[in-house]
Amino acid sequence: MRYEFDVTDPSAPGSLWRVAFDGDPLPSGLPQCALLLASGAWAGLGEEERREAEFAVGIRASRTGRNLRWAEVDARGPGGASRAMVCVGPIAYGGSLHRELLAALPRGAPLVAVDPLRGEPLPARPRARRPSAPACDTSKWRVVGYPGSVGAEETPARLDPVVVDGGGAFVDESGAPDVSRAGFSGVLYDGTAAGPWPYRADASVVVLGPDDVAALALLAASQGASASLLSGEERRFVEAASRATFGDPSALSGWAAALSTSPARGVVWYAPDATADALLAALAYVRLVELNRCMYGRPADALMAAARRLMRAAVTEEAALHAAAGMELAGAARDEVDRALAERTPNMNDVTRARGYARVIAFYRPRRRRSGWS
Prior knowledge:
single chain; 374 residues; 3 domains; seven-stranded antiparallel β-sheet; four-stranded antiparallel β-sheet
């Protein structure tokens, strides 16, 4: 199908450029977009960033049979001027491939998103974590896993669910066919099986590694005021997860959680969003305490590990700022720190984020120097 629309190039604001390209259409009614970058901006990306973006598109194309790739197109401007751009699309707007590409590309990349059917510009980085609740009947929907895989060094992780409808066909959370898994009804590709659980619109998949479970179990068993960070359902789940992870697989029999009996794997829980927030906030508290301990007299690798654990658990902007400061003081490159911080604080504007970061790192830097690990 031939698509034509006008775009505004962020590197040359104030003028419209006409773009035309051929692509395989998506199912009608599915929110979609084409993503574009000026060729110069694409060439300026790091080799690993380009490779990850190309790999994500290539994998999706091979699994769906669609003609999908990053292609160079000519954009025509005023007076017959021409400029080269790279384009991929159409893809599901806000879908799993869109999110993977946003994770692969640097946040500062001048990315443009356009609805290829209507020619309307769209925010290239949508802020909503998931679509609003679908209008269709979801009573027979089931959650059968989560996208990709999560290693023990990547926990905790919070992920959108992989959903099937009553007929076993994969759907996204708006009720539209999940084009990333089209043609594989009933077989989970590019994901990890878990559950099944009854679908609910206000829930997430939470993956906890054995270290996370152990840290939360110690918090639950403590007698101090911090123990109140876990209450009700979260506390009961932590206690059951601890017993299940470290010797009693039957402890989670009453919970809708997938479990590997190996202590190297931990647990997966399809939890209400409010419960997931509370659970990760409690874990972030534990990780923040660890980060502060590592600021004094601990080598850079220990500080880096503590900072990364906190960043993965961070559910508040303040926790993410502390984690980012720890990463930089441990020797992480500033662009890596900025990228991780931007991903965890999508609702902060650049000025507020920069001021908050300056405040936190100014607090930590003298402490790190006094410890002899400047």
